[in-house]
């Protein structure tokens, strides 16, 4: 396999992604760009290709609501964040995230009922039991030595929830968590990432094939049954949707559980507020989602035709990165945006789940899980505290989705 030639890098253009100087704030350059050049050019660190960055909240929403942009990652201008050989990219079918209407609409219509508000209300009691069981296990270890909150709670809870929802055997969680990590890492080789995609595809294909013969009471079986009654997609599409839900359904929520717990422990006045007024927790969830905005790469687009935005012209074929983390720290919408405020009235105006037709289909599940985990954790372990200074923790600056590798705690 021959790697594509790297484009010449343009002098003076900032590289993307940019690293956070503070774990609770976006890269410092975002504020300057938002103020002086809210639609600006950058070059991708992975390959030197140019792309446009959109950093203002109103322009972010305007761009993602524009039918003249596409999510098709096969287009030459698409700002991919990981190295991918062009030949490999051409051979990979588009997934739900990279489709445009009407294909995207068909698959979204199949998935939406699985994440409805009513479905989440039905699921909440089971999520509560899962959270309680894992906190029981934490407490049973005692507090003689630090416990890693990531491996003890933040990762296993959403992994188990999404497994039960999809109908995936939880005993396989170690394998798909490893594959998910490889797929989302900036710093592994293209061969390793390709191998992870291949193994995960083969695994999920086997699950779907088995459920086509022996369905159960789970999402994959319901997608199969729906498609038999109203044929709309192929077997491979159900595999692709199931793979996407499996990976994104645990990885993003796991990172938010760890980051949100860290933020509340590091801001005791905010933790005290939700303890005194438990009804604030749902707003606190929105504020934490806003503050961390853990993925800037999921909203990448390509202009299908020339677009005027923020006083500049984005030409047809050029790549665009509307930055969640920049839009969510826009002072015109969120005053004192770098300050965590669980009472913030505008918190729910965040775009951590994206915007427009591709807004995250699983956002109701994520919100519910975060609400249950944070509320239960701090109620049941009121003396929870960090077992290592925050500045010594390892953050996922090397991954598409931001998070923590470990979070040692004690009580």
UniProtKB/TrEMBL annotation:
Gene3D superfamilies xref list: Cytochrome P450
Q: Does the keyword Glycosyltransferase apply?
A: no
Taxonomy, superkingdom: Bacteria
List UniProt keywords, sorted A-Z. Heme, Iron, Metal-binding, Monooxygenase, Oxidoreductase
Give an example GO molecular function.
oxidoreductase activity, acting on paired donors, with incorporation or reduction of molecular oxygen
Asked if Metal-binding is a keyword of the record, the answer is yes
Q: What is the similarity comment for this entry?
A: Belongs to the cytochrome P450 family.
Which protein is depicted? Cytochrome P450
State the organism named in the record.
Streptomyces minutiscleroticus
Q: What is the lineage of its organism?
A: Bacteria, Bacillati, Actinomycetota, Actinomycetes, Kitasatosporales
